[in-house]
């Protein structure tokens, strides 16, 4: 299973690189709300790049210190994206920024909460709710052509299944090594589906 996991992982790296390059090339075709998708992908690419560069180039033995930054950044970028698409009050953007910034201060300054996975689950649930409401509105409003409908659907699907996998993983105390590889491989496959939705959307973009 380890070989299968690594194959899926490096395939995802290739997909992510393709998405960021294509997204940057199509950036001028996007409106202000749509450009937030590129910002989200660029942030994810930065995190993955740091996870590769720090151990192999700078000999970091542990990159777990990036995890709170990843949680806060992902939460802020995706939540603010859907808040803008839903045209919710702008002060909610400040609330989201405050929550993300407050989490990093508490985690890096006081190591609270001790288990950052709790914050990850909560942030994912908020993203699921916002993306779900966005999807409902986009499907009901047939007069509006949303070019990122498939991406929004894949975001909702990915985070919904990821929360389920996360909960199941932590409920099973005696999970074998192959079991962990299976869970991580499933999560990477879901990530690959999400990246493919970005590729499809960017390729189809026209002026």
In brief, what are we looking at here?
The protein is built from seven helices and no strands.
Task: Describe the structure in your own words.
Helix 2 runs antiparallel to helix 3. The termini are far apart. This protein is about 80% helix and about 0% strand. The protein has about 210 residues and is mostly helical. The chain has helices at about 1-25, 35-55, 65-85, 90-110, 115-140, 150-170, 175-205. It has seven helices and no strands.
Q: Please give the count of helices.
A: 7
Low-confidence stretches: none
Strand content: under 5%
Give the % helix.
over 70%
Overall number of strands:
0
Rounded to an integer in angstroms, the radius of gyration calculated over CA atoms is: 18 Å
Overall shape: globular
The residue-averaged pLDDT reads: 89
Major sheet summary line: none
Helix and strand element order? HHHHHHH
């Amino acid at each position: 299973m380890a070989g299968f996991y690594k194959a899926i992982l490096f395939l995802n790296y290739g997909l992510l690189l393709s998405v960021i390059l294509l997204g940057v090339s199509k950036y001028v075709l996007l409106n202000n709300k749509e450009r937030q998708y590129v910002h989200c992908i660029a942030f994810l690419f930065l995190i993955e790049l740091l996870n590769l560069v720090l151990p192999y180039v700078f000999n970091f033995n542990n990159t777990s210190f990036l995890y709170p930054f990843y949680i806060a950044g992902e939460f802020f970028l995706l939540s603010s994206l859907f808040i803008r698409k839903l045209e919710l009050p702008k002060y909610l953007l400040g609330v989201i920024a405050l929550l993300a910034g407050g989490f990093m201060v508490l985690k890096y300054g006081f190591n609270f909460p001790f288990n950052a996975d709790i914050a990850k689950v909560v942030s994912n649930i908020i993203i699921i709710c916002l993306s779900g409401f966005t999807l409902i509105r986009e499907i009901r409003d047939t007069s509006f052509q949303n070019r990122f409908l498939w991406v929004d659907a894949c975001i909702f699907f990915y985070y919904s299944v990821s929360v389920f996998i996360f909960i199941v993983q932590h409920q099973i105390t005696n999970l074998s090594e192959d079991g962990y590889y299976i869970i991580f491989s499933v999560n990477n496959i879901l990530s690959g589906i999400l990246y493919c939705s970005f590729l499809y959307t960017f390729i189809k973009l026209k002026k």
